[in-house]
């Protein structure tokens, strides 16, 4: 039988699984795999990042945006340990990622060798598969098993490779099992669907809440909502599934949220909870509401709210079938009040589109982003107040894509996610949206965008503060400490790194900068100096006259410039 280099055989496993790029930084303990990546460079592209964390966050973003496994590597010791943050992001958002770890030669292991690290224990918690390769012959097999495990469990698979094994020759035989890989959906049981119908029929204040499990299912969501006259709310990671300006879409719940969604969920008497594991339900959902939960994972039933009817199965299929089986609900005062509430919300936030205050508000910036965004644009937002602004002000059309670091909520994910998005969708327009805190953590990899000629539009909202945490310190009535940042000119920094750079300090500069960004063929960095003002705290609204005094409401409205937005309770009267 003919021979093949073990590392090349391993890379061919990636080829079989249609992994076309992998992120990382070379190291001595990874040289055998680097040699294989060079030999197979026409099929699996090596993407050089400037920090392994960038590579891991980008691999996670690949998986979030496509559903396909992301791939990253780190050399022994520090290269491997740098991956941890991005791998936890993948784990907590339940997406498939394979991480290859370099290791010293098998003959040097357990001799306290230079950069030798016992890597298995370090990655035990973050992974659903964690193996050290024991022979050259097993190297491609272990990687094939890792990819299967990542797909099966929606998580991180880690493979540690002693460097000498990758240089060895092994028998050339078919190893990859990609051609036999199957996926499918769980069909909901009719008896479970029928059990939900009486709750829907009896409800007076129903809300449909959707998560990532409904991706690609907007037509089913829309048909269900209109058949049963239900307003819709969504998880943040589900942004973009429902067009933001759809008349029945209330937005998002909790703190990274909108006023209409929080108000409706707080008083709903039925919540149909589909394809989500929203962790803040206990704080923002009416605890007395009846609850119908649809999920492909039975472990999630009852985790976030007492569940009256559980439906094991695909969310989109369940919504379609419930629409077919259930009696239509006529549009009533509940639906119309919620429709008016979301209309008022959009009118209010758009009222600041032309506000010329200095430093700027975020709304005029999003007016420009929405103006130049192409119909299939991809948005990657970093974590913090920028996330709040993005979910409120990006007017996505249903064909655009959005992602962020959801459960792990790690700062610095914007720039890496943009790299992933542009590599995966080279013909689509890509935006990254970051605060000055998050951008400073990842700005070194603007160089990567430049190196690979990725025309990403990187927008930075600079307010010289970790604003999201500053608001938390305000809420706990403690001294604001450690949250204020030294400012920098990120536009000039972007230019120094090889991108087109703009620094915006006034309203009149916005349109020219974004027009230039739209037409640029290079990475663009737009640093916008915004006022350090807290976004409207929809998690603690003081607008309901049944709960707050006239003076409390007036003070709240003045502080946050609220106008034309009565409470839902008033709209229901």
TrEMBL record:
It is an enzyme of class 1 (oxidoreductase). One of its GO terms (molecular function) is thiamine pyrophosphate binding. It comes from the Bacteria. The keyword Aminoacyl-tRNA synthetase does not apply. Keywords: Pyruvate, Thiamine pyrophosphate. Its EC number is 1.2.3.3. InterPro entries: DHS-like_NAD/FAD-binding_dom, POXB-like, Pyruvate_oxidase, THDP-binding, Thiamin_PyroP_enz_cen_dom, Thiamin_PyroP_enz_TPP-bd_dom, TPP-bd_CS, TPP_enzyme_TPP-bd. Coiled coil: none annotated. Residues 5-119 form the Thiamine pyrophosphate enzyme N-terminal TPP-binding domain. Belongs to the TPP enzyme family. NCBIfam families: pyruv_oxi_spxB. This is Pyruvate oxidase. The gene is poxB.
